[in-house]
Amino acid sequence: KNQVEQSPQSLIILEGKNCTLQCNYTVSPFSNLRWYKQDTGRGPVSLTIMTFSENTKSNGRYTATLDADTKQSSLHITASQLSDSASYICVVSLSGTYKYIFGTGTRLKVLA
Amino acid sequence: DTGVSQDPRHKITKRGQNVTFRCDPISEHNRLYWYRQTLGQGPEFLTYFQNEAQLEKSRLLSDRFSAERPKGSFSTLEIQRTEQGDSAMYLCASSILARRAGDTQYFGPGTRLTVL
Predict the structure, then answer these.
(1) Surface of A (64-103) touching B: CB under 8 A
(2) Which candidate, B100, B106, B89, B87, places its Cα nearest to that of B31?
(3) Edge-to-edge strand ranges of the sheet holding B19-24
(4) What is residue B98's predicted lDDT score, i.e. its pLDDT?
């Protein structure tokens, strides 16, 4: 079954600290993996997109890594800010289809 | 603001009523997606259009659901005989195919449906 699992489910950190979110997937055949940020009550916004040949991709303070062999990805947030409080969703696309499999997200809360 | 708009933003209806949502994608985007998202879950794929053609539908899209994109621009999602289980956020996303890494989807703000 094609699934995307994320951990932790929720996370609370202090402003200025770093954190790493995890994504494991069983989607096959795999096309690409994306990380989205979703603020409460709004649609998701794309942070990074990686194909199977890419190991890392950065977008400002966000750095995503991908290990296509172990089917794992991580999103590292550096020097967190209050505005980073949101859900972070890992999405894997199924090669040969138009389907995107979404994880349930990690809810991050950054405290002052 | 991603450039994708959805209307209405909120809809409250009684069970058994029909509802219709509209999505206006970014103008040059030929791909359009509908998703459903319930609280604490990630979005679930409902259907996909390339231009005006509906190329893929999820099994989640029961006979009570229908989507159209008549001129390859805006799209509508209709739910007939709504049930309480239809209460969710309905998200629309649009994209244009990029050669290297696939398309980046731009999501609208969603329509939150509450069925009483």
Answers:
(1) 89, 91, 93, 97-103
(2) B106
(3) B5-7, B19-24, B75-79, B65-68
(4) 62
Share of chain A above pLDDT 70, in %: 100
The mean pLDDT value for B36-48 works out to 91
Cβ(B93)–Cβ(A43) under 8 Å? yes
Query: Is B93 an interface residue toward A (CB < 8 Å)?
Result: yes
Please count the residue pairs, one from chain A and one from chain B, whose beta carbons lie less than 8 angstroms apart: 63
Tell me the shortest Cα–Cα distance from A99 to chain B, in angstroms.
7
**Nearest-CA distance from B27 to chain A in Å?**
18
Would you call A93 and B112 a contact, using CB atoms and an 8 Å cutoff?
no
CA-based max dimension of chain B? 46
The pLDDT tens digits of the residues spanning A70-99 come to 999 999 999 999 999 999 999 998 887 777
